[in-house]
Amino acid sequence: MTTQQVQAPFPGVFYRKPAPDEPVYIEEGQAVQAGDVIGLIEVMKQYVELKAEVSGTLESFSAENETVLEAGDIIASVEVSE
Amino acid sequence: MSIEIIKPGLASSIQDKGREGHYHLGIPPSGGMDQRSLIAANLLVGNPEGAAVIECALMGPELRFDTTRKVAACGAEMTPRVNGEAQPLNEVFEVPAGSTLGFDFVKAGARLYLAIEGGIDVPERLGSRSTYALGSLGGMQGRTLQAGDTLALFQAHGQAVSGRHLPPSLVPEFSRQYQLRVMPGLYAHRLRAESETRFYSEDWVVASEADRIGYRMKGGTPLSFIEREPPFGAGDDPSNIVDACYPIGSIQVPSGSEPIILHRDAVSGGGYAMIGTVISADMDTVGQIQPHQKVRFVQVTLEEALAARAHYQKVLKQLRQMP
C-alpha cells in the first residue's frame, strides 16, 4: 500500500465544508475517488475546490478546518487502492 | 505561433507596464503589480521592457507551446518545469515546440512574470495590453486566463540567449514580513494622534482577499477618527470624506477597522479618508506579499521617498544595462 499526500497548491485558508452549516466533504477513513472534492482553499476572493488525485481511502487530515496554509503544506493523506 | 492554456493557475493575466493617462476617467493603470520583475523578465529575453507577459499570482499556470521559444520567469519563486524538468528562475531557457511549461508551488513572493520571446499578441486597448478584469478591458478578452485559451505570440526576434541571467545583485529577496514606507496624508489629520502613532507601531497581516485592486490588512488595533459634523457630501462615518481622488498606493481605512492599500486595478476615487500613501518605490513589494504575511508601515518624509524613488530608478537602469 502506498500513501499519497495532498498538498496545498497555493497559500490560503483551508475549509473542510462547502458552507459553515453543511457537513464536511469527507470524513477520515472514508473511500475517495480521484477527482472527488475533499475541501476548499480560499484566497483572493476565490474558493478553489481541492480534489483527490488518486482513488483509495482518505486516511487522515493533517490540516484543521479554517486554518491558514502555505503552498505545499500537507493537507491530507490518501491510502492508494491497488 | 501560440501557447495554449492547459491549466490557468489561480489568477493569471496578461500584463504590460500599464495603461497610463486614463485614471481621471476612472480607468486605472493596471499592468504588472511588480513592475521591476516584469521589466527584468522582458529584458532578459530581449523584448522591449514593456512587452505583454503573463502575471501568475500564487500558483503558476500550465502551458503548451506549439512553437519553440525562449522564455524567462522573474518574481515569485516557483520553479518552472519543461515537461517536468526543473528550469532556473531569473534566467533564459528554451521551451521546445510541443512541450509543456508548468510551475512548482510558490516558495516565496506572490507573483511570477513569464516573458516569452517576442511577447504576447493581444490587441492594445487604450494603448496597453494589460488586463483590467474589473472593467473587462485589455488582455485576453478583458479577463484572467482560462483553460483552453490560446495566446498568439509575436514573431520571435531571435535575440534571446539561453543561460542569460540576472546578476545576483538584481535578484529581489522575498520575506514573510515586510516594511512598507508611507508618506502620511492627505487626510492623516482626520485620525486621532494616538491612532496614527499606533498604526505605524503594530504588525498588520495581509487579508486573504488581497488582490490587484487592493491589499486589505487586518490584525491591528482599529483606528479612531476625530468626530466631526460631516461636511456636505461626506458620509456619516468619521472615516468618510467628501469624495476625492485615490492615488495608487493610498491607504484608506473604512470605518477605521481594516486599512486597504490600493493597487494598480483600483477605483479612482471615493469617500474614504486616505491616511497615507505607500511610496511608489515600495509598490512592487506590495505585489509580492502573500496573504497572511506581515506588514509594518514606516513613516517617511518626502525627501526619503524621493531618495527611494531615485534608488528604484537606478535599479531599473542597471537592469537595462545588464550584460
Automatic annotation (TrEMBL), chain A:
GO molecular-function terms, A-Z: acetyl-CoA carboxylase activity
Pathway listed: Lipid metabolism; fatty acid biosynthesis
GO CC entries: acetyl-CoA carboxylase complex
Taxonomy, superkingdom: Bacteria
Keywords in alphabetical order: Biotin, Fatty acid biosynthesis, Fatty acid metabolism, Lipid biosynthesis, Lipid metabolism
UniProt keyword annotation of Phosphoprotein present: no
Database matches in InterPro entries: AcCoA_biotinCC, Biotin_lipoyl, Single_hybrid_motif
Residue ranges occupied by any Lipoyl-binding domain in the UniProt entry: 3-79
Keyword field contains Hydrolase: no
CDD domains linked to this entry: biotinyl_domain
A Pfam family per the record: Biotin_lipoyl
Record Gene3D superfamilies: 2.40.50.100
GO biological process: fatty acid biosynthetic process
Function statement: This protein is a component of the acetyl coenzyme A carboxylase complex; first, biotin carboxylase catalyzes the carboxylation of the carrier protein and then the transcarboxylase transfers the carboxyl group to form malonyl-CoA.
NCBIfam families, alphabetized: PRK07051.1 (NF005457)
Name this polypeptide is given: Biotin carboxyl carrier protein of acetyl-CoA carboxylase
Organism, scientific name: Vreelandella maris
UniProtKB/TrEMBL annotation, chain B:
Ranges where the Carboxyltransferase domain occurs: 24-315
UniProt entry keywords in alphabetical sequence: ATP-binding, Hydrolase, Nucleotide-binding, Transferase
Matches recorded under InterPro entries: CT_A_B (IPR003778), Cyclophilin-like_dom_sf (IPR029000), PxpC (IPR052708)
GO molecular function, one term: ATP binding
Signal peptide: none
PANTHER family (UniProt xref): 5-OXOPROLINASE SUBUNIT C (PTHR43309)
The protein's name: Biotin-dependent carboxyltransferase
Organism: Vreelandella maris
